[in-house]
Design brief:
The chain has one domain. Helix content is 68%, strand content 4%. It has a three-stranded antiparallel β-sheet, with helices on one face.
Length: 369
């Protein structure tokens, strides 16, 4: 494999710096979540997360070293593998807490639905790049993409994992809006979705219904269904402007705050670092998102623009939903905060995505207009 040396002269240090900075903040935060429960017999979570970051960096290098146009040639293969793994999850997956989302590979537990997020971006970018039209997209042009998205959506929903299934749909919607959509088609889809909501309610699991009802009125069951969100709001509010200080968050260290290393990492951070710390972290995410949009707008081809926009949309929506749910303004649907939440599959996939973003950023200097 021959690597163009010009890539290294145009390396995107800004993107790498933003990613590593958020990862470092996430590691410090995860260290805090396990501080009061330190157990020498088990590997600390922050050590495991460090290992996932290192592994992710390795795959990041691979992702930006190979021309993204070459990677695009295997988009359908990548999509097929991701769908196959989702089928394996349903048949032989590891189940915990009522969900069957993981498969065991060589002593590790892998979550294929995380891989499906990236596969969704790549396969849609490939399709729209191959089927460019003059004008907006309607039923005829979107029939095949909708079928491609419906398959993983239903498989992920079956696990059940409503949050990730919705992310796949949102990514589809984001890329369709990027390409341009007929307003009549949008009106019909919006009406159909609104009409389906009462019907869809009956297909939700009991705990999913409970989460939605809790979102509307968490104080009705403060020690049961509403416990998570109420403790999260208490933690964030008690941080005040300056925060309680590193390792001094009472909701965190006394373990009142549940799922603090995954879904509610932002609550931990806001309690210890306060409003100013939360604003710094949000500024870092905003900078990363704006930089991703800049890469998309400056790409020399439609394919690069689509992939970069899709990856940026993934970061934006996951951050938006995660922070919104811990603040109590969105239902709790189990969406991780990118680069911050503990989890190997999510971290590695996100690092690969950043490698592709760097790939597009650097190759705009060497591709012909």
């Amino acid at each position: 494999m021959k690597i163009d040396r010009r890539l290294f002269f145009n390396f995107d240090w800004t993107l790498l710096g933003l990613v590593l900075a958020i990862c470092l903040v996430g590691l410090i935060n995860i260290y805090s979540t396990g501080y009061s429960l330190a157990d020498s017999s088990q590997t600390p979570l922050y050590v495991k997360q460090s290992q996932w970051i290192v592994l992710g960096l390795f795959f990041m290098v691979l992702a930006f070293a190979v021309d993204y146009r070459l990677i695009n040639e295997y988009a359908y293969v990548f999509y097929g593998i991701a769908v196959f793994l989702l089928l394996v999850v349903l048949l032989y997956g590891y189940a915990t807490r009522g969900s069957q989302r993981w498969i065991a590979l060589g002593g590790f537990f892998v979550q294929p639905s995380e891989l499906m997020k990236l596969a969704t971006i790549l396969v849609l970018a490939r399709y729209f790049d191959d089927h460019k039209i003059n004008g907006s997209y309607g039923w005829r042009e979107l029939a095949i993409p909708m079928l491609m998205i419906a398959i993983p959506f239903l498989l992920i929903l079956r696990q059940p994992d409503l949050g990730t299934a919705l992310v796949v749909l949102i990514l589809f919607g984001s890329l369709v809006f990027f390409m341009g959509i007929e307003w009549r088609f949008l009106a019909v889809v919006t009406t159909a979705v609104a009409a389906f909501i009462p019907i869809g309610w009956h297909f939700l699991k009991d705990y999913q219904k409970e989460r939605l009802l809790t979102f509307v009125s968490p104080e009705k069951d403060p020690l049961g269904a509403g416990y998570h969100i109420l403790q999260s709001i208490i933690a964030i509010g008690s941080g005040g402007f300056w925060g309680k200080g590193f390792l001094h968050g009472t909701q965190t260290q006394l373990k009142f705050l549940p799922e603090q290393q995954t879904d509610f990492v932002f609550s931990v951070f806001a309690e210890e670092w306060g409003f100013w710390g939360a604003m710094v972290l949000l500024s870092m995410f905003l900078s990363l998102i704006l930089w991703g949009l800049k890469i998309s707008s400056h790409s020399r081809d439609l394919l690069g623009s689509l992939i970069a926009f899709g990856i940026t949309a993934l970061i934006f929506w996951e951050a938006f939903v995660n922070i919104g749910m811990v603040l109590g303004i969105l239902p709790v649907v189990g969406i991780p905060l990118p680069f911050m939440s503990y989890g190997g599959s999510a971290m590695v996939v996100m690092m690969i995505s950043m490698g592709l973003l760097m790939n597009i950023s650097m190759r705009r200097f060497i591709l012909k207009p």
